[in-house]
Amino acid sequence: LLAFYEISREEKYFKAVSNFIENVASTDLTLIGCSGCTHELFDNSSLKQSEYSEQIMQETCVAVTWMRISARLFFLTGDKKYLDRIEQSCLNDVYGSLNENHEDQYYLFTKKFVKGMTFDSYSPLYDKCRGKGIGGYLEFNSGGCYGCCVAIGPAGVALLPLMSALSSKEGLIISSFFNGTIKTIDTNGDLAFIKMSSNYPSSSSCKISLEGRVGSKVNIYIKEPFNSSSLKINDEIVSFKDGYAYIELKQGEDVNIFFSIQLKAHYLNNKVAFTYGNLTLAEDETKSRRDLTSPIVLPSSFDYEFVKPEKGELVRIVLNLPNKEKLLLSDYQSCGKFYNQKNNHINVWINYREAN
């Protein structure tokens, strides 16, 4: 239907797609940017996401498809919410599904382990482990196998960097910070290179500079970072218009960008979850050695500290609880990576009770 709108430009077709997508976002999008807590079905996932389930859920294919439709809608509208959704899905669901340790995966229907694929198919949210199920699993007569999630997963991995820097008639759109170089055209039509240095999303700063001919300039539109309350450019607070801050970057000039990221609590069905910017945080049983089903005592205000991330982590946060207890949280994409060892469950949604 969206393709038909792109050809016909009849607004009613775009409106139908847009309304559908916003309905999905309000009823079936979870905290990791995926949908479907029952296989790949629409099942009111926004409410069901905190429930325990024996079923497979949150399929990687769904997250990548959501990212792809979000990209197409962004190109038609320029609305930053679609860029935020791409980032949310990729940083949490898609990167979390990467089988970085080449763990063997268990296929539910044949009840056997198969050699590990590049992507896990399902992403648990409450007291479950990874590596249990392979979406669209098929074996070749000549040997070997594949699945739908391992086939579409690379598209999700590629889409975030592809959308991080985009050319437009007005200038360059930067939607996500990274370490690297952007090759672009300056306002005079000459080749220019923008150097970017940032540890985003674990860091809340970025440095950019322009290398080009003498007098070279590039108009840059910086997307408002997700859940950020303010943004400074060279120590000056800047305002956003329609979700973007404008700067004119000049040759040889260094621009330092700073923004705020806060730990945020989300409450649902007597459970609590935490995000840090666009990173969803999780408990990992391997890291915390805690019974993930036992409730924590939640303070009225949050006192937390950052500790040095371990290998594979973007952030590691310790939340200080009453009675000198502590809750260890790290980015969701780094959790549950050892599929086949004991005590490998992960939690996004955590049981809690209020402090007396």
What can you tell me about this protein's structure?
It is built from seven helices and 23 strands. It has helices at 2-8, 11-27, 45-48, 60-77, 80-96, 148-164, 285-288; strands at 105-107, 112-114, 138-139, 145-146, 165-167, 172-174, 180-185, 191-197, 205-211, 217-223, 231-233, 236-237, 244-250, 254-259, 263-268, 271-276, 279-284, 296-298, 303-306, 316-320, 326-331, 346-347, 350-354. Strands 15, 16, 17, 18, 19, 20, 21, 22 and 23 form a nine-stranded mixed sheet that branches. Helix 1 (2-8) packs antiparallel against helix 2 (11-27), helix 4 (60-77) runs parallel beside helix 6 (148-164) and helix 5 (80-96) crosses helix 6. The longest helix has 18 residues, at 60-77.
- Report how far the terminal alpha carbons are from each other: 54 Å
The class by helix and strand makeup works out as alpha+beta
Compute the gyration radius: what is it?
A: 22 Å
Give a count of the beta strands, DSSP E runs of length 2 or more.
23
Main beta sheet: strand number and arrangement?
9 strands, mixed
Mean pLDDT over all positions: 93
Number of helical stretches of at least 4 residues: 7
Tally of discrete structural domains: 3
Low-confidence stretches: none
Shape: globular
Secondary-structure element order, N to C: HHHHHEEEEHEEEEEEEEEEEEEHEEEEEE
How big a fraction of the residues is strand? 25-35%
